[in-house]
Design goal:
The chain has about 30 residues and is an all-alpha fold. It has one domain (about 1-30). Helices cover about 90% and strands about 0% of the residues. It is built from one helix and no strands. It has one helix at about 5-30. The chain starts with a helix and ends with a helix. Keywords: Membrane, Transmembrane, Transmembrane helix.
Length: about 30
């Protein structure tokens, strides 16, 4: 696997998890 590809995949995974957790926190705050 390419190092660049692995880095891009890891970065998008981190961003996805961050977005998911912030969305979850926002949902909990308003429910």
């Amino acid at each position: 696997m390419n190092t660049e590809l692995k880095m891009a995949f890891g970065l998008s995974a981190v961003i996805g998890v961050f977005n998911l957790s912030s969305l979850l926190g926002w949902f909990n705050a308003y429910s």
